[in-house]
Amino acid sequence: MEYVLGITGSSGIIYGARLLERLPHKRVLILSRGAEKVIEKELGERKFLNDLIEKADEFHWEEELDAPQSSGSHLFDAYVICPASMNTVAKIAAGISDNLITRVASVAMKESRKFIVVFRETPLSYIHLRNLMEISRGGGVVMPASPGFYHMPKDINEIIDFMVSRILDQIGVKNDIINRWGSEKD
Q: Max Cα separation, the chain?
């Protein structure tokens, strides 16, 4: 099994970081240069970037278009971009694959592989909505980083875990990170 995670320069890097921790092996991480900058802004230190890279089984920067995942002949089980910037969403919707993050999205859609875009943007313009709709029409799953609260989260980690659990559900990874609707509270 191989799971590919793209992290772009959108706010909400912590969602992608937590998802990487929860993905089963083999975990392939692709980072944009924008993500590198946002990590330092949101999390305040370069050490977090190094820790994130070390958690991956395989790592690539977005400019590495020769990575195996850029080819349709390379098999992977699912691709998640979390968080996805609206710049990346627009490129994917327009069929532009000028970096590894957008190229793997193109491969996932053309090969009918599981592909999920988790965006964290608000409010959304007509253009954002149109681009997200195009990804959905192309076979991608569009997931806003909009956690639920029926599980009564006690802290920010439980809010993040809600979204991570829902993403894992979408790619078929069993998990018990959260109490599910209708289940008994611990």
A: 48
Residue whose entry in the numeric block shows the structure tokens 């327009």: 94
Bridge partner residues of 60 (DSSP) = 30
The C-alpha atoms of residue 181 and residue 28 are separated, in whole angstroms, by: 31
Q: Domains for the chain: give ranges and CATH numbers.
A: 3-170 (3.40.50.1950)
Measure the CA–CA gap between 134 and 165, rounded to whole angstroms: 25
Q: Say what the pLDDT of residue 44 is.
A: 76
Q: For 102, what's the count of Cα atoms within 13 Å in the CB-facing half-sphere?
A: 16
- pLDDT per residue as tens digits for the range 115-146: 999 999 999 999 999 999 999 999 999 999 99
Alpha-carbon span 55 to 59, nearest angstrom: 9
Buried b (16+ CB within 10 A) or exposed e, 61-73: bbeeeebebbeee
Over residues 25-64, the pLDDT tens digits come to: 999 999 999 999 999 888 877 789 999 999 999 999 999 9
Q: Which two tokens stand for residue 153?
A: 């989260």
pLDDT per residue as tens digits for the range 149-185: 888 899 999 999 999 999 999 999 999 998 777 776 5
DSSP one-letter code for 182:
T
Give the helix ranges, DSSP H, for 111-181: 126-137, 156-170
Contact assessment for residue 32 and residue 99, using Cβ atoms and an 8 Å cutoff: yes
- The residue assigned the tokens 């599980």 is 151
